[in-house]
Each structure stands twice: as C-alpha cells, then as structure tokens.
Write a structure and sequence with these properties.
Number of helices of chain B: 8
Order of helices and strands of chain B: HEEHEEHEHEEEHEEEHEEEEHEEEH
Strand content of chain A: 15-25%
Number of strands of chain A: 2
Number of domains of chain B: 2
CATH superfamily of chain A: RNA polymerase, RBP11-like subunit
Structural class of chain A: alpha+beta
CATH architecture of chain A: 2-Layer Sandwich
Order of helices and strands of chain A: EEH
CATH superfamily of the largest domain in chain B: RNA polymerase, RBP11-like subunit
Radius of gyration of chain A: 20 Å
CATH class of chain A: Alpha Beta
Structural class of chain B: alpha+beta
Shape of chain A: elongated
Largest sheet of chain A: 2 strands, antiparallel
Mean pLDDT of chain B: 84
CATH architecture of the largest domain in chain B: 2-Layer Sandwich
Low-confidence stretches of chain A: none
Oligomer: heterodimer
Distance between the termini of chain A: 48 Å
Largest interface: A-B, 29 and 32 residues
Number of domains of chain A: 1
Mean pLDDT of chain A: 79
Strand order of the largest sheet of chain A: 1-2
CATH class of the largest domain in chain B: Alpha Beta
Strand content of chain B: 25-35%
Low-confidence stretches of chain B: none
Shape of chain B: flat
Chain lengths: ~70, ~350
C-alpha cells in the first residue's frame, strides 16, 4: 500500500501488547474511497505470495533435479 | 554521475559504518526519487524476483530470496516460527508414576518431544472438548517398569548391566489408535521423530504408566508446537575495495575477514587483494580496527537479497514448512478480504 501513488498516509499501531488489536489508518489523496487501496493492497499481497510460492516450488524442483543428475 | 551512484547506494545498500549502520529504512516510495518510477507494479516485481536454493541436507534448507521487501521476508520468518501448526503432546493422564521425576516435569518433557505426524491430516480440537475425537487427537502410551537383572555380576556397578529398562527413551512411546484411526491412516506410523530422546531414569521397582493426548497447535500458543528448530535470515554482504590494496596490507585485509572472502592474487610480482566471495563473511568489522585499512573498504549489505536458513525439527521437511508458511499468509489476506466484503461500510 505504501507503494501506491494515491495513498497519502498509511500506518498502524498496536493499542496494547496484551490485546491482539491493531489500529490501521489509511488516508488517500483526492476523492478515492479509502477502502480501495486497502483492498488493492491485500490483493497485491496475495499475488506476491502466490508468485513467491510458485517460484520457490520451481526452484526446489530445479535444485533436486540438479542434485539427481550430479549423483548419477 | 556520482550523485546517481550515491542515490543508488541509498536505495539498494545498507551501509555498515564504523560506529553505526546507515540507510537502514526502505526509502524507494513513489515520489521520493525524481526520475525513478516506484509505484507498485506486479509485473516488475515478478521479473525482478527470484528464489535460489543453495543447500538442502538433513532437515536444513538454505535458500536466497531476491527482490522482496523486508516486511514480507520478516513475515515469512515469523510465521515459520509461530504459526505453522504441528502435533504435540498436550494432555498427559498419569496412571502410575513412582519414578523420581515429578508428574508435571514428566508431562512438560513429554510435551516437548517432536511427534512425527503430518498436522495437515488433523483438525484443531474444539474449545472446551475434554475427550477428543479421532480427527483431532493422537493417543500415545508410555508404560515401562524397571527391574533388577538376576544375571548381573556381583561386583558390577554399571547400571546397564545391573538393571533392565532403567533408561526411558522416546522409543518406548507407542501409538494407541483411537476409534477408526486404523482405517483412516492405514499406512501411518505415528511416533516421535527421534527414538533416543531420554525422558527419565528409573531404578528397580519404579514404573511409569501414562497415556498422552497429542493435539494440533501453533507456536504462538506454546513453543512446543513450533515446527522449526530455528528459522532465520540475513542480508547478502557486499564488500567493495575503494582502492587497490597490495602486499602487507593485503595480507592484513585477508585476516580481517572470514576465510575465503578475500583472495590474494599475484599480479606482476605484487600481491593484490580481491574480494572472492563476500557471501561467506560474518561481518565482524575487524577491518575498522586498523587505521590504514578502514577507509579503503566499504562494508554494506544488499537491501533486498535475503539468505534464509530454515532448520526443521523433523516433523515436516523444511521446504514443506516454507510453502505452508506462504499459504498461511495468503489465508490471512483472504480472511481480511472476506471481512471487508461482508462488514458494511458507511
């Protein structure tokens, strides 16, 4: 969310360490409703995680295939 | 040209000075640097991102993640430590314990033993459910009695010869299937990961008879549920020699760093130092203690290159743990998105 040019302010704070609550504040420039960058941020994060997962699995397969070849 | 280099340095490197670390925070937000387009672009991220597996042996996985932000790398590390679920002993029903180890100490030790059971096959136990059902509980029994060996020599003082069963190991724990677990898991072999964990010591006449219930839990609740021995990351070191360093200074420089980092080459009869493999260095900053060398070397770390090291306790292989951690982060995002859609906003 910090990397979106529409977001004017984005931050969080924890009200008290014993309670599991986080206060999240997003402020947008102009007329965009604040929920939008939040939603977009979550979707982008999901996309990042999915890509990380795919790349990691591909790398593991490649590494294991390479090791099989070296053993033979 | 120099200005561009220094902004690149500020964006991409964390510099280790003599008395402190500079450029720690991420600064490449949109609008901060004129001439750079920093707005989030998934395609640019995907092109720049890569994962390289360096080493996999014996439950230890070392891999590099390049092109990711610190917050996300840290999130993976924290999830690996605290939120990937495993099965561990939670309730211990003590029928008989005449050993010298107190009940609660014995129960604590049993809880910390890693159990080889894939947590994805089980559900979390419902709150308030004391009995446990076959989809959320694994039952183990430990029943052992120490006795004297009648064949032992008269003068022997070796406990291994004198007594039977005086050492209680984790291999003495046996799985007791509940309900239809034998049908649900026909090929499964649920037991502790290691057979040689010493639980207690006994002498003749003492016995331990306990029944244990294993449940699924996460590390945040109790550290016994953490699936990793440890999960850590470090940033890739980057050592630059600002001027050529020769002869004796080169030898001193080589000794300042971990072995293998600095290599001395023989060019036209003179010994010249060269950075061979900065990755091996542990950054003890020994070079700052030498007046002549400290201004000739720049110690830095590459900001978005993370060298992860994940060591598993043996319950699940480390690469499975990493994939589970990433899926858990995705699950959290999804839950948030669902909340956003269902809760009405004014």
């Amino acid at each position: 969310m910090l990397f979106s040019p529409d977001v004017e302010f984005c931050g969080y704070c924890i009200t008290h360490p014993s309670e599991s609550k986080i206060n999240f504040r997003i402020q947008t420039r102009g007329s965009l409703p604040a929920v939008e960058p939040f939603r977009k941020g979550l979707n982008d994060l999901m996309g990042v995680c999915q890509h990380v997962l795919d790349t990691f699995e591909k790398s593991m397969r490649k590494y294991r295939a390479q090791r099989e070849e070296e053993m033979q | 040209m120099a200005a561009k280099r220094s902004t690149d340095e500020m964006r991409e490197r964390v510099v280790l000075g003599e008395f402190g670390v500079r450029n720690v925070h991420t600064t490449d937000f949109p609008g901060n640097y004129p001439g750079y387009d920093d707005a989030w672009d998934p395609r640019r991220f995907e092109e720049a991102f890569r994962v390289d597996v360096v080493r996999e042996e014996d439950g230890l996985l070392e891999f590099d993640m390049v092109g990711i932000d610190a917050a996300i790398a840290n999130a993976f590390r924290r999830i690996l430590l605290a939120e990937v679920p495993t099965m561990a002993v939670e309730k211990v029903f003590v029928y008989n314990n005449t050993s010298i180890v107190q009940d609660e100490i014995l129960a604590h030790r049993l809880g910390l033993i890693p159990i080889r059971a894939d947590p994805r096959l089980f559900e979390y136990r419902n709150q308030g459910d004391e009995e446990g059902t076959e989809i959320d509980t694994l039952q183990f029994q430990l029943k052992i009695k120490c006795s004297r060996n009648p064949q032992a020599a008269k003068e022997s003082s070796d406990p291994n010869e004198l007594y039977f069963n005086h050492k209680v190991y984790s291999k003495h724990m046996t799985w007791v299937p509940l309900g239809n677990q034998t049908d649900l898991f026909p090929d499964a072999d649920f037991r502790p990961v290691h057979d040689d964990i010493l639980i207690a010591l006994l002498r003749p006449g003492q016995e331990i008879d306990v029944l244990m219930h294993c449940v699924k839990g996460i590390g945040k609740d109790h550290a016994k549920f953490s699936p990793v021995a440890t999960a850590s990351y470090r940033l890739l070191p980057d050592i630059t020699l600002l001027q050529p360093i020769e002869d004796e200074a080169a030898e001193t420089l080589q000794k300042c760093f971990s072995p293998g980092v600095i290599e001395i080459q023989n060019i036209k009869g003179k010994k010249v130092a060269r950075v061979a493999n900065a990755r091996l260095d542990t950054f003890s900053r020994e070079v700052f203690r030498h007046e002549g060398l400290k201004n000739l070397v720049r110690l830095a770390r590459v900001r978005n290159h993370y060298i992860f090291s994940v060591e598993s306790t043996g319950i699940l292989p480390p690469d499975v743990l990493v994939t589970e951690a990433i899926k858990i982060l995705m699950g959290k995002c999804q839950r948030f998105l669902n909340e956003l859609d269902t809760v009405p906003m004014e």
